Recover the amino acids of this structure.
């Protein structure tokens, strides 16, 4: 057993770290200014330039299979890359990737949707959640009714990440109501629906700077050939889309928490009250110590979840644990860091309050804390997983 | 021992509850969007006497004592915290100094206008290098004939942009440490006084804080509040009173969040049952309710002590600490119970979550409250 990164892995980590320090962190003030003025965090052009730079450095489609021109670095490397990228709040993705379930597309669909998505020519989103159906997917109300060789879709989706600027959506709708009601898992189908087929999106304002979309389908007609996977077999795709990489939230939390803790340490050394730096007060020291311990714990949980998947094993249990613990750790750390900064931390002079607002989402999306606990305990109580089996 | 509120206070409380619900709360979204409290609702609040919460009847106030004040704060806490803070800072730390330490001339000069809301109050202690460390104040006040000349900067001053009357702490004798601080009543029109630009914050939109600049600011000697050298003691008393009031306002916000959460959890179904029937949610609600009851009892107990003229330095610190921590825990649970809905701007919960966060920082951070509590306890064994 060797818990260290290989030389090659270290090199990738170092390159990404440099990219973050040299290219992304210098944009932070611009991002804050833009957001305060109600503008997009970064202009489209800046994002494209950054992606070009990253592409030149060899980072494009970091997790896309090689046959599609990606780097296919694997889950563990992706976790390490995400931890580095999350040290800044500048919104950035390397590009060149597609949702995992889009790989289930048939040849024709691949040409039309998968390849353009990987090439960055099209943007996609996935839509399962509805106002009355969050984690309880049995409540899905959106219907698709067959008419000739078309399906007619009606209903609403909500909290759809990427829904505001997607060119097409992979949407889950009920195609066999009786079967869906009886089984809860069958009778729903996944459709690929172009925006110009007639669905609308509405921006949802949130506590954070990130805004998902509500999608409205009002008699949207979709050709038969746009079914992704099997008719009535959409639930499987939905599960795969959701459960695939929940640990990503944990990785984001680790990177963010590391940067935030560093900020708090620097501030605590400088800020003097009652004649000495607050770093010399135990109330501050303890907060720093607890944060550091929790960051390490979350880091190894996330890496284990990623490593297990690379190993070809079922990592869903670990992914849920990494998501739950990482999200909560992140919230505790940003709370302490804000507290250490006092009044300053509450103002928009510093990015801490922005991070505080963003972090709160981690405990809600991709399955709430409560859903993760349901999954984890069910696995253990039903004996699907044994306590301590992951080593 | 009687835990019930007096009939007249109960009646007043019910009136204010209705007023807040019908006249103020509908403007919450507007306050949030515009970062501004409409003059119309400020004026309505003045008309029903809310600006005179701390002021005796003799000077045009409600004259309801601390218990009565906290009862009304509880209702005022149930709406947008920017509004709550504007009223709270004026009726708390903004006026209490003049009510408690002012001489008859000062009271007659300032209180009637403050009670009617014609003039708004603010409290200025904090400086860039002296947050909770009040004895580190840098602002100076030098006597020159029948005037004092004030020089220095204050920051994070709540109501700075709307206030007319400031209770300001400055150093009159730097060799005397805490005993060399004096409080002054400063009017915004005094020469040499200027308000800086507003701070941008995570929450409390509509309530603004800013820096205050004093450049050879002339203050008449008759505007010394209490005795020269007594400013630090004044500040402690004003802050203690303010902290108790803050807890009462937090209590109201907590109650509002519990009501929203219980209603939502009863209506929202997941896995075929209302989520309140899932133990994870039901126990969160039980904890919220329990903490609110504890906070309520503690709040009125401290308010009662104030009305008995008892010293409340330690109790106010405990109450402020507990009230802020409870408010943050409850806001966190309210967001969680509401799930994605709790994170959305169209719904009030996320706003309370952001507004709650400042209560653990302003009017003395949680850490400072702990220092005060232990400092008070330790004395007993030191002397």
């Amino acid at each position: 057993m060797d818990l260290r990164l290989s030389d090659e892995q270290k090199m990738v980590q170092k390159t990404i770290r440099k990219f973050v320090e040299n290219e992304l962190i210098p944009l932070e003030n611009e991002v804050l200014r833009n957001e305060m003025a109600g503008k997009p965090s970064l202009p489209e052009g800046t994002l494209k330039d950054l992606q070009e730079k990253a592409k030149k450095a060899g980072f494009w489609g970091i997790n896309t299979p090689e046959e599609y021109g990606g780097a296919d670095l694997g889950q563990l490397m992706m976790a390490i890359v995400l931890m580095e990228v999350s040290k800044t709040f500048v919104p950035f993705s390397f590009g060149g990737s597609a949702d995992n379930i889009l790989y289930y597309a048939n040849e024709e669909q691949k040409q039309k949707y998968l390849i353009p998505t990987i090439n960055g020519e099209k943007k996609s989103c996935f839509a399962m959640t509805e106002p009355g159906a969050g984690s309880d997917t049995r409540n899905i109300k959106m219907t698709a009714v067959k008419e000739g060789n078309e399906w007619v879709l009606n209903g609403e989706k909500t909290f759809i990440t990427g829904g505001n600027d997607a060119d097409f959506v992979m949407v889950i709708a009920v195609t066999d109501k009786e079967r869906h009601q009886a089984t809860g898992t069958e009778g729903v189908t996944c459709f690929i629906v172009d925006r110009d087929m007639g669905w609308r999106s509405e921006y949802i304002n949130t506590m954070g700077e990130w805004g998902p979309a509500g999608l409205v389908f009002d008699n949207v007609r979709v050709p038969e050939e746009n079914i992704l996977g099997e008719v009535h077999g959409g639930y499987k795709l939905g599960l795969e889309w959701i459960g695939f990489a929940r640990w990503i939230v944990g990785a984001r939390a680790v990177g963010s928490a590391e940067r935030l803790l560093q900020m708090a340490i620097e501030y605590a050394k400088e800020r003097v009250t009652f004649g000495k730096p607050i770093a010399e007060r135990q109330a501050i020291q303890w907060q720093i110590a607890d944060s550091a311990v929790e960051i390490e714990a979350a880091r190894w949980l996330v890496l284990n979840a990623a490593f297990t998947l690379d190993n070809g094993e079922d990592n869903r249990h670990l992914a849920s644990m990494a998501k739950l613990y990482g999200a909560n750790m992140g919230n505790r750390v940003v709370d302490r860091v804000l507290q250490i900064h006092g009044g300053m931390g509450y103002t928009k002079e510093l990015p801490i309050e922005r991070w505080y607002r963003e972090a709160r989402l981690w405990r809600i999306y991709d399955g709430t804390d409560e859903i993760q606990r349901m999954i984890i305990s069910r696995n253990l109580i039903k004996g699907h997983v044994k306590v301590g089996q992951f080593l | 021992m009687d835990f019930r509120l007096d009939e007249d206070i109960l009646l007043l409380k019910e009136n204010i509850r209705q007023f807040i619900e019908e006249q103020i709360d509908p403007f919450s979204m507007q306050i949030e969007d515009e970062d501004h409290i409409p003059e119309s609702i400020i004026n309505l609040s003045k008309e029903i006497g809310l600006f005179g919460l701390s002021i005796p009847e003799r000077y045009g106030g409600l004259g309801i004592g601390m218990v009565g004040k906290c009862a009304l704060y509880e209702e005022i806490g149930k709406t947008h915290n920017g509004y709550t803070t504007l009223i709270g800072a004026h009726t708390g730390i903004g006026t209490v100094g003049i009510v408690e330490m002012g001489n008859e001339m000062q009271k007659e000069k300032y209180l009637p206008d403050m009670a009617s809301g014609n003039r708004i109050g603010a409290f200025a202690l904090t400086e860039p290098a002296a947050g909770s460390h009040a004895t580190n104040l840098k602002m100076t006040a030098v006597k020159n004939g029948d005037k004092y000349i004030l020089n220095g900067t204050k920051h994070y001053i709540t109501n700075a942009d709307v206030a007319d009357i400031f209770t300001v702490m400055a150093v009159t004798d730097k060799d005397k440490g805490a005993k060399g601080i004096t409080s002054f009543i400063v009017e915004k029109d005094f020469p040499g006084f200027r308000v800086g630009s507003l701070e941008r914050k995570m929450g409390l939109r509509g309530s603004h804080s800013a820096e205050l600049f004093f450049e050879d600011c002339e203050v008449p000697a008759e505007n010394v509040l209490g005795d020269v050298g007594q400013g630090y003691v004044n500040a402690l008393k004003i802050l203690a009173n303010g902290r108790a009031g803050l807890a009462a306002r937090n209590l109201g916000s907590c109650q509002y969040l519990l009501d929203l959460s219980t209603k939502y959890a009863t209506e929202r179904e997941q896995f075929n049952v209302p989520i309140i029937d899932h133990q994870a949610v039901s126990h969160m609600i039980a904890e919220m309710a329990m903490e609110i009851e504890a906070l309520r009892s503690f709040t009125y107990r401290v308010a009662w002590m104030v009305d008995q003229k008892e010293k409340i330095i330690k109790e106010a610190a405990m109450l402020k600490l507990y009230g802020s921590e409870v408010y943050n825990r409850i806001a966190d649970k309210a967001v969680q119970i509401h799930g994605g809905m709790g994170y959305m701007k169209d719904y009030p919960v996320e706003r309370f979550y952001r507004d709650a966060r400042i209560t653990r920082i302003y009017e003395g951070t949680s850490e400072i409250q702990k220092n005060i509590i232990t400092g008070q306890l330790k004395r007993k064994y030191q002397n």
Remarks:
- DSSP finds 13 helices and ten strands in chain B.
- The interface with chain A takes residues 126, 129, 131-133, 136, 156, 199-203, 269-272, 278, 280-281, 335-336, 339-340, 342-346, 350, 353-354, 357-358, 360-362, 365-367, 370 of chain B (CB under 8 Å).
- The CA atoms of residues 2 and 179 of chain B lie 40 Å apart.
